[in-house]
User: Fold these one by one.
Assistant:
Number 1:
Amino acid sequence: MRRVVYGGTFNPPHLGHIQAVHSVSNALKPDKILVIPTNLAPHKEMSSDTPPPAERLELCRLAFGEIPGVEVSSLEMRREGKSYTSDTILELKAMYPRDELIFVMGTDMILSLETWHMPEVILEHAVLAVLLRGEPEDDRVSAHIAHLKQRYGGEIILIQAPVYPMASSDIRAALKQAAGRAFLSEKVYARIIKKRDYAAKAELSWLKDRAVELLAPKRVPHVLGCAEEAVRLTERWGGDAYEAAAAGILHDITKKCTLDEQLLLCDKYGIMIDTLVAGIEKTLHQITGAAVAYEEFGVSEAVRDAIRWHTTGKAGMSLLEKILYLADYIEPTRRFDGVEALRDLCYRDIDGAMELGLRMTIDDLSAKGAPVLEVSAQAYDWFRQRRGEST
Ligand SMILES: [Fe+2]
Ligand SMILES: [Fe+2]
């Protein structure tokens, strides 16, 4: 059996790595490609934001797991200490004594091979396949390959592969800036966002796509309007426009769920709810929505909390909490008596607008004979008191 070994830190595994697998597969027609993420790279310092080995292994499974003939191996993850390729090759040779082993590497790696731990072992037991990523077959590489063959024997072949424009380090930097999605497979990206690997922030366009999938179509204009209004409010009052947009996009993410589905979500995320809240579906979505946004879409605690209180309000709200509450109330598709006055107040006196918004909600509920939650009554009192103190 012809077994290709493709090792690396895969930090994170990106589309360039997937492209490399396809190039190797086309060129060598192997029976199996083993993708082996490194536990501890012997030659380079792993960046400080590297996720734990088990998480990189999971990302690799998501990136490569569905490519026919590819198997992601935890062989190096299971071994203590630095991940020397020579140890891996010897281990594989012991496991598959009759197989032909081909070890894939980049040109930088072949040039530094003699600084590796026991290069002679690698060349004795494996064919080396050097990936030329759009590079011409330069003289330095050819000369070095000739030197290695002469010194150690063994076989070294060259494989042409397309250039990939981004390095893993660039992708890690992009993820922190709410970018980089284009360089990752969908499953890898969703996992990185969910787990907050690399301190990644979700791209707003990706969050919008996910929200649209989960919302009733009629609610989409409201949600997008709310996100835009929240950003406008940050322009007036300060705060983080990205956080405001993310909160707006995700605030009604569980609104479509039935009461049973809401309760299942409470169960899933370990949310304890009192019976009064449980009986009011309208307010339950703020609790489950906050949990889904935080657990699945990697938002910050501030965004989670803004979603958590966007329907009821609460005493002592943060700026972002107020902004989301009000954006939800006054976004451009909202039509109700008094909306213009409330809109106007939102941009003149944010606490005054909170007090008015809460008053309007409480009056509306009372008029309908619906219960007013204690937390909303407390919020109203808190804002009213603040006004009393400032005048
Ligand atoms: Fe809502
Ligand atoms: Fe809403």
Number 2:
Amino acid sequence: MPIGAGSGTRRIWFIGCPTDIGVSRNKGRPGAARGSGSLRRALANLPVRFGDALELIDAGDLEPRDGDLEGLMEGLELLVGAVVASGGFPVVLGGGHETAYGHHRGLVRGLAALSLPAPRIISFDAHFDLRPEGPPGAPLHSGNMFRLLAREAGERGEPLEYDVIGIQRSANTLSLFREADGLGVRYLPAREAGSPEAILGFLRTGRIGDRPLHVTLCTDVISAAHAPAVSAPQPFGLDPNVVLEGLRHLARSGRAAGLDVAEVSPRYEGDDGTAHLAAVLLFAWVNAMAGSD
Ligand SMILES: [Mn+2]
């Protein structure tokens, strides 16, 4: 049964998280703090194609105070936890990819309230984001959240189930590949992800079990030809069509507990093409969840 099903109309909560503190800590190009606003503007122009199957709710923005990323992530965790516990589906509009940290912790919290296990992560990303922790007191950044989450899963006595689609050899050090192997990460390199069939094959095989899913989309997984307005553009990134088909498959599966979209970084006025692309991917996701595609 789909997660949260059985409560009538399914509610999708859009939660803006306009921060790029983690990107700056990771020494990346800032700009993702304006991502949620540009995503909202792009989403507002899209038509509604479904009836009563879904209700879309804009939960507004969670904004950091005085650079307090940790406090912001606590707030995101509590909000996502409450949404999931009530049977709702969170869509987190980043923000840097570090927002996946608070989102994941919130999913763990909300799913536990429903007596469901912690979610498996399905990430679309050029990067593993398994870098060593940052300095004491401010450890989280946009390149290490899955390492922090792996440690926390270990403290709960369970492995982090983490699958990544679109990994670039040119964007991850050898030590990161070793770290991923050590943690049992499944990944599909970008150069093997050239067709929808390749991605669907990856998603349909591999891990056994029917854990809920945390789906996370770092928009730098997409080719820079289509998604230039990100912190770390990837010239050999994925074709948007294969990402679209992967997302539609996951949305239809009924196993997704939450979705986040990160790293859209509209750095200049008028540079909203990447936001529009991400908004159309969200449009496809929502329609797949509604069964209206
Ligand atoms: Mn990335």
